[in-house]
Design goal:
globular, alpha/beta, about 260 residues, single chain
């Protein structure tokens, strides 16, 4: 069994709680340290209950609370190998232990596989979590749709997938041209249309629960992201809430919890 709770998701900070029967994992610790503690407390957890922190990449919206956390708790922190030394220096002499990620690894009774994202970071990984027959994958901060990504997600019954922006909103918005170009590039972020393309390729797979994540506050809306996915499913004869469940993660208020057996 796996239980998935996106605590925060967006350009200001990201953190997802992944739980098995006896293991608690935080995927990224973006946003503020106190906000994360409060979110854990609302789920009857403390930092001492967390068995591991798994980091996707070094951008601040994914590691904002890392240094503060590491100074207070001896949690094992799993960091992609190319950035492990850099981030390790930030938490040197802290009780937390840095574990380099070079491939698949295990935390408690959860085995974890990796996917190399296409993003303008030194290294950015997506992760797939498996406990028994339950599988969940999270891939955000990647700029292009690849068949390898579809294959990585297909064995999962639940996925968290980036649906960062609506292209029309982005192009008509007040971002600078270089920033717009960066977001739209193969090393930027997935649009609603790209996310929907991936989901369409996953029709017929095990994926029955979809969390759309990492939405831009300025260049997207929950309705646009949700409707894009649901319209695609409807065109394939699938009904949201019956054949597939679609959720939209929020920057601050996430009451979403998905349990998969």
């Amino acid at each position: 069994m796996l239980k998935i709770s996106p605590l925060f998701s967006g350009s200001k900070g990201n953190c997802t709680l992944i739980q098995s029967d006896n293991t608690n994992i935080l995927l990224d610790v973006g946003l503020g340290y106190r906000a994360i503690l409060k979110a854990l407390e609302s789920r009857a957890l403390t930092p001492n209950n967390i068995d591991a922190i798994v980091i996707t990449h070094e951008h601040s919206d994914h590691i904002g609370a890392l240094q503060h956390w590491a100074q207070h708790f001896s949690t094992n922190i799993y960091i992609p190998s190319p950035i492990a030394h850099e981030l390790g220096l930030r938490i040197a002499y802290a009780p937390a232990e840095v574990v380099e990620v070079n491939g698949s690894f295990t935390v408690g009774n959860v085995s974890i596989d990796v996917y190399e994202c296409s993003h303008d970071a030194k290294c950015c990984l997506g992760y797939r979590f498996t406990s028994g027959d339950s599988r969940f994958a999270c891939v955000t901060d990647t700029g292009c749709v690849k068949c390898e990504l579809v294959q990585f997600l297909a064995p999962c019954s639940a996925i968290m997938l980036e649906s960062n922006h609506d292209e029309d909103m982005l192009m008509k918005g007040d971002y600078s041209y270089p920033l717009k170009r960066r977001i739209l590039s193969n090393y930027g972020h997935l649009s609603n249309a790209q996310a929907t393309d991936i989901l369409s390729q996953l029709v017929g797979s095990r994926v029955k629960n979809v969390i759309l994540a990492h939405l831009s506050e300025k260049n997207n809306t929950r309705e646009l992201a949700f409707n894009s996915a649901v319209s695609m499913y409807a065109s394939r004869g699938l009904t949201e809430g019956k054949d597939v469940n679609v959720y939209v993660a929020d920057q601050y208020e996430n009451g979403i919890t998905i349990c998969i057996d």
